[in-house]
Amino acid sequence: MKLLPPRSPIKGSQEMLLIPCPYCGNRPEIEFAYGGEAHVVRAAAPRTVDDTAWTEFLYFRKNPRGDHAERWRHAYGCGRFFNVKRNTYTDQIEASYRIGETLP
Amino acid sequence: MTQPYRLSTGGRIDRSRTLTFSFDGKHYTGHPGDTLASALLANGVHLVGRSFKYHRPRGILTAGGEEPNALVGVGRDDAHFTPNLRATQVELYDGLTSESQNRSPSLMRDYGAVNDVFWRFFPAGFYYKTFMWPRKAWTKFFEPRIREMAGLGRSPKTADAARYAQRFAHCDVLVVGAGPAGLAAALAAAKTGARVILCDEQSEPGGSLLAEPEAMIDGLAAAEWLKAALVQLAAYPQVKILPRTIAFGYFPHNMIGLAQSLTDHDGEWDDSKPRGRLWQVRAKQVVIAAGAIERPLVFPDNDRPGIMLAEAARIYLERYGVLPGRRALVFTANDVAYRTALALHRAGCAIAGIVDLRPDAGGPLVTAAQKAGLPVFPASTIAGTDGRLRVTGATIKPIAGGSGQHVSCDVLLMSGGFTPSVHLFSQSRGKLVFDSTLDAFLPGAPAEACSVAGSAAGLQSLKEVLDSGAAAGGGAASYQVANAPLAQGGFIGAVPYHGDPGSVRAFLDYQNDVTAKDVVLALREGMRSVEHVKRFTTNGMATDQGKLSNMNALGIMAPVLNKPVPAIGTTTFRMPYTPVPFGYFGGYARGELFEPERRTAIHSWAAAQGAVFEDVSLWKRARYFPRGTEDMRQAVARECRAVRNGVGIFDASTLGKIEVVGPDAAEFLNRMYINAWTKLQPGKLRYGILLREDGFVIDDGVIGRISDTRFHVTTTTGGAARVLTMMEDYLQTEFPELDVWLTSTTEQYAVIAVQGPMAREVVQPLVEGADISAEAMPHMSMVECRIAGVPARLFRVSFTGELGFEINVPADYGRAVWEDLMESGRPYGITPYGTETMHVLRAEKGYIIVGQETDGTVTPDDVGYAGMIGKAKPDFVGKRALARAAFAAQTNRKQLVGLLTDDPAHVLEEGAHIVADPAQPKPMTMLGHVTSSYWSDALGRSIALALLRDGRARTGEQLYVPLENGNARVTVVSSVFYDPEGVRLNG
């Protein structure tokens, strides 16, 4: 599922990551919306996918302690979705790359 | 003269001015430069609080932010009142009003002190075990009593009169702490041209140098060097010094939260100035020079007023010109306490003795004390103290055993050595490393771009401290230092005292009243992890977060567990370093500025008509337009009648609107919505349903085809941003091959709904360039034209079941067009109606509201919309999910139905549950719930919509809605109550 939580643009005092948008450069987290795990592929022909695989696609997500590829949207900037490789324990961002590019 | 303990010279206070202040209603005097604590001590006041649990009399223990006892409420009135402030950090101003906490009726006579008499019955964890029976007594009796007895300060009852500012800042180097290490770091960084922010929690920069009369730095007395350093820093335009500023939190990517106090120190006299400012600083490099905190020694009855930390007593003497007492007993495991004894001795305070835990204390300070004739007791301990509201004496015993010796004193000064302040470093997730020679956790490998300098890194000599600061600031200065003391030696744990451990209390955590025995009890009860011991005993869980107690707790645990300290580990340091008032975080976002308020172009007209507004997401929407003395029900009934019988006008501007444009626009909508769009002709409208990928309804709205390549999509009011984001997501990431542009136009159009049998008569005269007759413009069609001279998209659409139009005009013209329509409708009795009437009218027709009839678990079939699905489409969002066998297997899904109560006057509660048999035992089997419920003027009775298990098959069944005042019997009917054939739409 690709729903982003609604976010209010004004209450940003808890947002602290510095996120490198591949289109705009480093911007504070307050400008972005989180988009969940990256590289969850929606099959081109969903009819050909069996129930088990579709259920996996819908509901199963990784929850790693460590490196995680995740989607962000520069919601209050360029509006583009992109991918980020972030360590969920240290919060350090190792890479950001465009949709369609492979995880570096 | 007052201030009997004030020395006539020395310190950084201004004796030329006298300030008056009050504490618990009694008036005292002090001087500019004092803290509340130093001024109270100058007046001989040590007793300032009662402890949290046992209500024991407590005094001022420290001279800084780690203070656990001297918590006070300060403020001239409730609107300027702050509880739980540390008196050691409250700067004195003229007229300061303060009060003690957690005592009744007074500090001297406190009824809660009965807890202290019965202390044996209140060990750690006592209330997990004691207040178990009877069960109800916990909420009704025990908890309220305990909350009353065990507490901190009172909350003010009125709103905070202060306002608060917030600021974002960037710098190359942020230096936390303006003591010698921080100053050296800032100087070195400034020399390289870096943008520097130097913050410090005290009223003036300097840290330990503010109480340093002896040391020489680069040939200057410490105070002179400090002055010169500040002059030098002030000359750099890119250096910002923030006093009274606490670095309370270290967040990822070198974001540091600073809380800067702006007006507290002068009494918050001017409410137009911000009281404080929250800084969110993004630093390329952080230098933590937060210093070290002196540890108490854990010995029996170590908490009486008059018992202080040795370095704190020296600070009161050197910085504030205050003698903490007339006869001091010193208890130490560290050399610097000798320095305190020598300084007090010189200032005229008798030294009753220096009790040193170490057998072999040496070094220049020890020698100097011996030379000055001060009585030193090596390898000795203190076995107990006496005095009720003030310490009056203590018993000294050799550690090896033997008989004790009682000495009298009016202050007892202790030093267990120093604990480096690694809080911020640990918050940054840097690793801590235990140093067994210092008995301290020191900063290890950093996780962020930060370094730690000075005594926060465990350094003990002033030269090392200064040089480490310079290195951290990117410089290579080598300072020349003379006459600086060395703070070597220390002790963690509970000191030996040769007594019955069951009969004494040696306090470990002063603020939470945790004793050494409580920690041992926790271990006996089976706690092993330091985190479990912390929670069982509450050690370190008070507002000081164990700044004084954590290391001693580990020192007590280690021998019992027979493990070295690093193997036990330490608890997690969390923000805030010291408490920060909520107002700092609220900042500007309060009152009217709490959230942006969205108003439509017609808002001002509705307000002038006396409309009652309701909040729908951030929008203000007119709910109804009462006339005269009408209440809501009367107004809504009148508005409903007007729409059903004549004509009504409604502001629908808040509907979300998205312009979908491009050669692939129709294909894009095919993939997003359940409906088929390819064959929809330009000029036609269709009601669209949007699912999530899991097959559940997430939004709906009417979509108009403007041309082959352009659609006007509407969404729910609350869903506008969500739908646009979802569309962008699929367009950018799943269907990037589609040539489509999405633009939010919600704010660009004002939308005016004109609904009712007379709607065409009202709109017609204002239309230019279009034929809106029933033949030329049937239901669910649209046309671009001019209305009241303004370019418009005119939709023939209805959310009421009546003939209706929705007029989209540029928002700036919204109110003008609205007023023209009102004028045009006057002969037909046009009636403005609000969202409440809109809800009733649509419910009479069984039209759903997404978010009311749906809750994120409702499929199109559940609400009877399966027929809208474009069957020939290979794919749309949610299609594959709906085809899963899991759905097909559910034969008992909740479906949308209507309910009619036996009593036509009974309007059911929305959210009420439906059961087959109200006499069944609880918990009952629920069949569904009421989603919408209204009085229907058109039907002359109540109506309700509900989601009901296998609902459509139950039509005609009688079921029950159990409510507080009895069971309502209902009959299941169709969800369309009014005009089921839909003929009125075609008027």
TrEMBL record, chain B:
Domain SoxA A3: 505-585
Annotated protein name in UniProt: Sarcosine oxidase subunit alpha
Gene Ontology BP, a term: tetrahydrofolate metabolic process
Record EC number: 1.5.3.1
UniProt keyword Oxidoreductase, yes or no: yes
UniProt keyword terms in alphabetical order: Oxidoreductase
Aminomethyltransferase C-terminal domain sequence ranges: 894-979
This protein's record includes keyword DNA-binding: no
GO molecular function ontology, one term from the record: sarcosine oxidase activity
Organism whose genome encodes this protein: Acidocella aromatica
Segments forming domain GCVT N-terminal: 602-872
Family: Belongs to the GcvT family.
